[in-house]
Amino acid sequence: MAGRKKSPIMPAVSSITREKGMSVSASGYLRIGATDVDAWMDFGTGVLGLMDAGREDAAGARFLRMDDHPFRLMIEPAEADGLIATGLEFPDEVAFLRTCDAVAEAGHTVAPGSAEETARRCVTAFATTTDPSGNTLELYWGRTLDYRPLISPQGVPGFVTTYQQTGDLGFGHLVLPAADFDATTAFYTQIIGMGITDILYPPGMAGAKIHFMHANNPRQHSLALFNSQHPLGVVHIMVEVETMDEVGRAMDRARSAGSHFLATLGRHVNDNMCSVYLLAPGGIAVEYGYDGLLIDWENHVTTVSIEGDLWGHEYSFPGVND
């Protein structure tokens, strides 16, 4: 994108944002319900190029790896397709407990995870809560890493989940529905500890509004809120690869697999991501992208966008554009 470059990342970004009240480190993992777990795994490994973690699970879940985390996506047998929960990572026990206390003091139920469920998530501790729009969150700290090398079945050399001295960027990002938009925005910014990066008024969508929010890492947004409802509990999720060629190779694999292209190749204005949108089995939209913007939060000022794309991203909704 002409005139826009990745902001220089300073090693002190982490301490700077914490001093300003930033708490949550990253969007760490997702729990996804699937009526056909095998189909989701075939899509995850065969199209996205993620690695089957090969973990045993008493409840029949399957797990997808992107890096040295034991999993980033947990695919669970369910009666309906959709997002079950979002795992938000905190840097240490102090930040985790402080945030859990703040959530409870604000009137939200906080349920500590059992020892069995904690081990299942490969974390030191976690607690479950819901935001004002009903999205389920799992707040956690102390992930147990898996240092086996990532071996993508499609030869993807790596996914963008870390950056130099700043550490974990999370699995990517997700956009959650937020019918109670103002209260939900306040929940994430005032309690969870995120900051608003950009406010988008999508063109051609009267009354629509999206708040893009960053965590304590340089990724332009780790989570966003859309002021509406969604039947699957998530508007889309995003995973990022290291080169444009890997996006192109994924597009070829998607065509061969018969995956539905929700949006053609395009580049977003606010986060610079060059990406394509695919529908996973069950309907969850997955953005597969490259070249996402990284930002030095010490020098960032919240922006307002009225255009979503610099070019491309022509959408094709099943049942609408057919």
TrEMBL record:
One of its GO terms (molecular function) is dioxygenase activity. PROSITE patterns: EXTRADIOL_DIOXYGENAS (PS00082), VOC (PS51819). Residues 26-142, 170-291 form the VOC domain. Its cofactor is Fe(2+). Pfam families: BphC_D1, Glyoxalase. Keywords: Aromatic hydrocarbons catabolism, Dioxygenase, Iron, Metal-binding, Oxidoreductase. InterPro entries: Glyas_Bleomycin-R_OHBP_Dase, Glyas_Fos-R_dOase_dom, VOC_core, Xdiol_ring_cleave_dOase_1/2. CDD domains: BphC1-RGP6_N_like. It comes from the Bacteria. Belongs to the extradiol ring-cleavage dioxygenase family. This is VOC domain-containing protein. It comes from Seongchinamella unica.
